[in-house]
């Protein structure tokens, strides 16, 4: 047979579209032509494949070979197609039965010796292959990652000869059995380790219960970073589908930390990070920190020290839960449904309002420092809290009443009420959801409207007050929002002063 077809997968963002590798042999002068919008690494695969085939003892056809990677308008890059190209040439030249390739999808880069090397983004391909009902062939180093997609048959190969023997039927490869790697986890830091700061712990609990964004402001050493690192321990465990989404994203950037793959990510980029580092980018778009924090927490310490242009790129993802990176030939969409926690000092020196009078910052310096944060960005943060300095106590003993286990149970109960009622966390309610699930009595509605007018709050801020109030009601287990919930939610807006 002079024509063979092998299935493979490309990688575009977090998706793995199907790619059909077609190999055709024709009479004429020996040549190999590769078409289908291949990039440099793919074009170089013909040399890797030729050497691998010869070093494995097969015959490289001395004919005119045409390789087509379809669809032709989809860019292909990397060495992930090497294995499929080699199998296509061997099948087209009659050295392997073409019928044995119909139910397979192949990924892997070939060394010149025929050894199969690992590739990135295998989990996204595994999820797509599972949907299509095909068996996935991957390098042995990627087998554990591929097996995270439960119900998928995975063949782990180390050498081209091993796969060739399987296709020929002489030495079938048994489906790979994962090494007992299911849902492992490491404990998060415990909230009980934080000394005092009851108001901050309360805000952290509210943020976790409703998936709200949180800004902590206070002098150095008050525990802002310590508090932020405790938030993941309060959040509900990831569902299997959510865990797979997180793992697929991290598969694009680097190897998945398989010992922690079901856990919610906690990302803490340095304040010198650039815009592309935060949102993703590059000639071949890669996920940034906000995507790597998907389903988890993005912690921005020293918030005003970030470049203002960098912070402004957070505005759209905070609303939409995704980021779209546009290039001349394509658009790549990355998920970015993260929970933002930020920390900052009240002034450049950090000691504004300190009883000891250590602050020497001028009004102009303080204004310049705070103006690095735009109003639209601050408006998208639901909870603003000032963290005061606690009395020094060196022999602090953790309090079981403040433990993450106890807080996580309350958060789980509140989240369960939200998902049963509306199918999402309160922070993600749209306008229709607000009208249905955040109803107020006429007197309470008038009270809130007057409060927003006196405080000069935007309509977006008013909606976020309603969402926080709904979360407070869920934490108490009551069906309707009460005046006390509205009053507490108002206290978490900057410069809040409640009406009479």
From TrEMBL:
Which intervals hold domain AAA+ ATPase?
210-391
Q: Name one Pfam family in it.
A: Mg_chelatase_C
Q: Does the keyword Magnesium apply?
A: no
Q: Which GO terms describe its molecular function?
A: ATP binding; DNA binding
Lineage top rank: taxon: Bacteria
Q: Answer yes or no on keyword Nuclease.
A: no
The record's keywords, sorted A to Z, are:
ATP-binding, Nucleotide-binding
**Family per similarity comment:** Belongs to the Mg-chelatase subunits D/I family. ComM subfamily.
**PANTHER family, per database record:** COMPETENCE PROTEIN COMM, MAGNESIUM-CHELATASE SUBUNIT CHLI
Q: What is this protein called?
A: Magnesium chelatase family protein
Q: Whose protein is this, by species? A: Pseudomonas pohangensis
